[in-house]
Amino acid sequence: MDTKGHSFLDRVFNILKDETADEVPLIQFKHPKELEEILSNDLDISINVDDKELENSVRKILQYSVKTNKVTFRNQLYGPMDPYGLAGTWIAEAFNTSQYTFEVAPVFTLIELKMIEHILKLFGIPGGDGIFSPGGSVSMLYALVAARFKKFPEVKSKGMQKLPEMTIFTSEDSHYSIIKAAHWLGFGTESVISIKTNSSGQMIVNELNKAIERQLGLGKYPVFVNATAGTTVLGAIDDLEAIASVCKKYDIWMHVDACWGGGLMLSATLRKRLQGIQFADSISWNPHKMIGAPLQCSIFLLKEKGLLHEANAAAAQYLFQQDKFYDVRYDTGDKSVQCGRKIDSFKLWMMWKARGDIGLCKVMDHVMSISEFCLRSIAEREGFRLVSDTLQCPNICFWYIPVFMRKREENDEWWALIHKITPKLKELLTLSSRLMIAYTPLRHHKNFFRLAFTFHPVLEENHVLEILKSIEECGEMVNTDMV
Amino acid sequence: MDTKGHSFLDRVFNILKDETADEVPLIQFKHPKELEEILSNDLDISINVDDKELENSVRKILQYSVKTNKVTFRNQLYGPMDPYGLAGTWIAEAFNTSQYTFEVAPVFTLIELKMIEHILKLFGIPGGDGIFSPGGSVSMLYALVAARFKKFPEVKSKGMQKLPEMTIFTSEDSHYSIIKAAHWLGFGTESVISIKTNSSGQMIVNELNKAIERQLGLGKYPVFVNATAGTTVLGAIDDLEAIASVCKKYDIWMHVDACWGGGLMLSATLRKRLQGIQFADSISWNPHKMIGAPLQCSIFLLKEKGLLHEANAAAAQYLFQQDKFYDVRYDTGDKSVQCGRKIDSFKLWMMWKARGDIGLCKVMDHVMSISEFCLRSIAEREGFRLVSDTLQCPNICFWYIPVFMRKREENDEWWALIHKITPKLKELLTLSSRLMIAYTPLRHHKNFFRLAFTFHPVLEENHVLEILKSIEECGEMVNTDMV
User: Fold this and answer.
1) CATH assignment of B356-477, given 3.90.1150.170, 3.40.109.30, 3.90.1150.10, 3.30.1330.30?
2) From CA B275, how far away is CA B127, in angstroms rounded?
3) Is the Cβ of A59 closer than 8 Å to some Cβ of chain B?
4) pLDDT tens across A275-312, in order?
5) pTM above 0.90, yes or no
6) A33, A40, A45: best to mutate for the B interface, most B CBs within 10 A
């Protein structure tokens, strides 16, 4: 055996420094086939290379990768990381540890417990339980499993087949993970009832009420309402108090998907937007989105202590021995559907320890203040039109209307053209490396842009103006021949 | 906004260097309450601290954490990491990227595709499909979902309730993830039929045959056979060819859980132990176990191309737009149950690029040669008794019998005492920081030890002898008053 490779670790810092330097472009876009061609030798793994060649390949790979740390990376609901979070994840990776038992992860176990305890209090459900999961979609699976088990504990041994036909309620603007979860868990996607939203993207609670009545009338068993605190596109926060009342009335599990909007809870002034979240039976929150924890950092919380373990435990005797020499209640891994599980709590602990509740409040307030500035700027700016002027989460959705389109009648053809112009404009922005921005249609709305803001160490108002200028300049290059 | 924290990244290397140095003990064990007391200020996150204080807390946390890089860390089926893998994971973390679309992860998408293509060939199912998942248990969920969808595609929309009662077959020594999966997916744990194993821990294929016939007789629908290539405790590899014949005969999906044993496929001589794996419909393999990829690195493979996408796609229009300006077949994320997903393929690419097929073959051969040496040493050594002398994967299971026990009659009381001595001995080894080793009962066997070997940069035969010496020395400290 050799110790080959240890010296490569020393190169990592320099590689990263060079490849994420200020002068490096956001993206050098190449089409898939082109990129395969450029990197064909680098991607080939059958023959080994020496450290110098490896470094060259790594640098080439990073050159063609997206620099998510740039202020102009606005393509997703995440961005650059809190450097404390990155330090935490590097350390956790170097300590290569799995989270299942106290004996292998003594301090990391305590850290996960402490983080969950702190966050449960923050979300208004002290005394509850929770777990770090590998993402919001897995948290959604946890939530549905918990709700189903609470109503029908026999599901664990007997399965779904003898249970009544259950229905699940969610808004039409909610995240698609609930559809995937309904398939996986055996409910079927047709069991998911989509509830209409208002123009801001909030679930219409009266429609929820009616839908539940309708399902009851059909002999179905309503088991789960998924309220969203921060929809993916518009950033809408459902009326959690009103939904809680409905859930209470019908005795239905209330889950709040706060994967995106949960960050607002950190702010003393913004958290009232999630008023009612304390009535939830379960909550999911992804600190890897709004507050810049490194991917993956995702938390699933429940109000009822013990349920998570009861639902998920399999009591593997090779791992969760009951005759260990320490208090085995600290072996928390059997709450999880996973066996091996990463130490995702440590990076969040690092961020929180460095910034404290007050520092994270400031982070959140700054994100929202930039978003408000962006919304106002867009509202005032010629050629930009807002999809919604409600700002609950830091999402701003809008169309850019090039000069040649502005005086025309806004009929179906006009909108059909806007629908094509939006992706074309995105293409120009990407190819020129000026901006990566999301676009999407939504309900009756034709393709529009979504700018979303998350933790960023240097993002200020002038960057927002630069972003809008890029959209204008590329927007004026689009013409009808192109689309 | 500030750039607070960036300078902390510079400290990470020094912290890690000090806290994992040669002279640092494997573990300084403290009981949970004691540890909470020692670290109470460090774990408190409500008030922020400066970088110096943060560093102190981090160092304290690491001091009480387990050093999984030591040769004496033999507690789990993972250990230290390949340094190239660690470099890869550090880089991937710093590039904070999610794996769903080509536009945000152009090169990382190609790397995942290339790695899967290479590994599919290695496992004898070229032309198949695959995905990196957050661990073996999630891979098991993928496998069951795929098998069920293949037989009953209507499950996706209609759920489990109108389907026939399905049964799942697995050996009594297989991993517990199948139990959790059966609950989550709505089969119910009672649908999992446990098949007896022989003394080496391999599924008795004739028993499988009989169990299938019995279930058919009961009107049940056999849907899934889980063969294990590397059981968790004994490291047994089921007779994959024989199981494949049974699956073919009854037209049942064959999954091979090679999470542990899959590493043997890297070795030209060892891979024949998994002969028959090429007949599998799906396979799971965790490179984060035997070959030292950093946690998490887990792969799920299927023989049938396209099925993974068909089963799991939800076609979210905000993410997987079909009017993008590039070939959207490279947006591979809709195959996944996750939305955001870590770049787990890059660390494995780094390892493979640095070592090549030949280098990884050597890694594997070395792991097995050390294990064979350990098995022989234990077989010859007084006071040690093997649970099984078959060595398919690098697991060696044995009892240590202290001198005062050796001449006694081995009746029920004797075994009851051994059952108590084993965990006591583990306690002494842990508290003295000499060795962390796994123990477990299995079937009729009373508590015994499992030594398992994985990639290690410096592990040699003399370390194995040191480990056995530690067991002997601590073993002779145990007396009947202690247990």
Assistant:
1) 3.90.1150.170
2) 19
3) no
4) 999 999 999 999 999 999 999 999 999 999 999 999 99
5) yes
6) A45
